[in-house]
């Protein structure tokens, strides 16, 4: 993601037109179009199509020339023409703008048979690259490289792209409810309920776990509330893969890279050394989880000096049973399970550890969050937290970090308990089922 010379830039731009022609020809020949129903998992449409684990392959495209050579990998992604994207956005009219960011402007559009024969009707989001500098092109290329091969219900689906002359555009599935950032921090919005917040946290965690568990891990590197988009059912999906990096291989412990990301979310060791690992994403997840719990921004200069950094202000309270509930978002109006809140706070505490090795794996985070979901159930039951989750994250509510014990020993343990209906709930919640939410049944 570093700076490039003009020689590389000219080579990249000169190869773009040929690459578009080639992939368009392949798209017409194969008549393969995207499924508008969202992320799917590893369906094989042609013999050349590879699974997500193939990102570990050394031939994964690193520049536009390699991208054109590997065009067959992306037959489920459409190469749109600039004219087609101008048509569906009414020439990029200002009233079609969904948002703006560092990459450029995002517009709403609608594709159907009138755009191209064979296309299914669905709304889309069209992201237009800001033409200034090569950095934007590299991010565009990174997004196409990763999302052109990755498919998962918690990743935003890449429908297509456009690369004509110096124009770079990306076409995604349209996410009806916009970003998590807007729902958490816009004053005009209705506060998200506890169960919705935990559902969003779980969905985002599943997206990260999927990336980290590829044969060659993918490090997202820019996990934050503005990059978590929500569909009509509040399903969380990760977007904006412009800073994503292929993770370390073999004996490598980290990837050395130029420090990029967002202040307030980046892991401290990455900021200090440029050493990037999957645990860097875990730290960022901890920040977002903290934002979900508190309703506060990661950095807020409008607050008193000691409260401007959310992590600095909140983390000391996260492992103190008496203080942790004091930081829960007051807009929740006590409508949550105390025990679920304690577990979520403890999870955030370990995700935010200064020592990367003390942070849990994202797969363990998923297993920890799953019992905290508010789901229909009408009877008392025994709920258990996955022991593999404890093995890595070493989560123990109100207790010390487990140490001096092997992973195998801890895998034999189960945390289980039965709680009476609504026991542990801070106050009755009319939205929970008669037996109390799952979160209320987790000890």
UniProtKB/TrEMBL annotation:
Annotated spans, Disordered: 31-58
Residue numbers binding ATP: 127
Subcellular location: Cell membrane
InterPro entries, per the entry: Kinase-like_dom_sf (IPR011009), Plant_Ser_Thr_Prot_Kinase (IPR050823), Prot_kinase_dom (IPR000719), Protein_kinase_ATP_BS (IPR017441), Ser-Thr/Tyr_kinase_cat_dom (IPR001245), Ser/Thr_kinase_AS (IPR008271)
Domain Protein kinase span(s) in chain numbering: 92-373
Main location as per UniProt: membrane
Coiled coil feature spans: none
Record keyword Glycoprotein present: no
Cellular component, GO annotation: plasma membrane
Keywords carried by this UniProt record: ATP-binding, Cell membrane, Kinase, Membrane, Nucleotide-binding, Plant defense, Serine/threonine-protein kinase, Transferase
A biological process term (GO) from this entry: defense response
Family annotation (SUPFAM superfamilies): Protein kinase-like (PK-like)
Gene Ontology MF, one: ATP binding
EC number: 2.7.11.1
Protein name, per record: non-specific serine/threonine protein kinase
Pfam families per the UniProt record, alphabetical: PK_Tyr_Ser-Thr
Family assignment from sequence similarity: Belongs to the protein kinase superfamily.
Top-level lineage group: Eukaryota
């Amino acid at each position: 993601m570093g700076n490039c010379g003009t020689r590389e830039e000219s080579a990249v731009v000169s190869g773009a037109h040929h690459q578009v022609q080639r992939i368009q020809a392949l798209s017409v020949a194969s008549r393969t179009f995207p499924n508008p129903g969202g992320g799917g998992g590893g369906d094989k449409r042609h013999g050349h199509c590879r699974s997500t684990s193939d990102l570990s392959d050394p031939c994964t495209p690193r520049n536009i020339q390699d991208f054109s050579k590997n065009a067959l990998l992306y037959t489920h992604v459409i190469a749109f023409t600039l004219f087609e994207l101008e048509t569906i956005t009414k020439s990029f009219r200002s009233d079609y703008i969904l948002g703006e960011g560092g990459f450029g402007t995002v517009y709403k559009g609608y594709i159907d048979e009138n755009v191209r024969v064979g296309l299914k009707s669905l709304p889309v989001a069209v992201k237009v690259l800001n033409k200034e500098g090569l950095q934007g092109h590299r991010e565009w290329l990174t997004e196409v490289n990763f999302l052109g091969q990755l498919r998962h219900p918690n990743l935003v689906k890449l429908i297509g792209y456009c690369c004509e002359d110096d124009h770079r555009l990306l076409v995604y599935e349209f996410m009806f409810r916009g970003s998590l950032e807007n729902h958490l921090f816009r004053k005009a919005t209705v506060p998200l309920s506890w169960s919705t917040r935990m559902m969003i946290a779980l969905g985002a965690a599943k997206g990260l776990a999927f990336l980290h568990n590829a044969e060659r891990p993918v490090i997202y590197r820019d996990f934050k509330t503005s990059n978590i988009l929500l569909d009509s059912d509040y399903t969380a999906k990760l977007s904006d893969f412009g800073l994503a990096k292929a993770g370390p291989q073999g004996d490598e412990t980290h990837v050395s890279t130029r420090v990029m990301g967002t202040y307030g979310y980046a892991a401290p060791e990455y900021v200090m050394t440029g050493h990037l690992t999957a645990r860097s994403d875990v730290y960022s997840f901890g920040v977002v989880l903290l934002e979900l719990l508190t309703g506060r921004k990661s950095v807020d200069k409008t607050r008193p000096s000691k409260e401007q950094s959310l992590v600095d202000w909140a983390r000391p309270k996260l492992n103190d049973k008496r203080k942790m509930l004091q930081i829960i978002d007051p807009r929740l109006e006590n409508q949550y399970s105390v025990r679920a809140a304690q577990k979520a706070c403890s999870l955030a505490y370990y995700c935010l550890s200064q020592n990367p090795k003390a942070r849990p794996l994202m797969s363990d985070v998923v297993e920890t969050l799953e019992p905290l979901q508010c789901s229909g159930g009408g009877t008392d039951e025994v709920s258990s937290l996955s022991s593999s989750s404890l093995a890595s994250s070493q989560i123990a509510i109100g207790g010390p970090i487990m140490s001096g014990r092997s992973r195998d020993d801890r895998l034999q343990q189960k945390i289980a308990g039965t709680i009476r209906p609504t026991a542990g709930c801070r106050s009755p919640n009319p939205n929970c089922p008669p037996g109390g939410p799952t979160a209320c049944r987790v000890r």
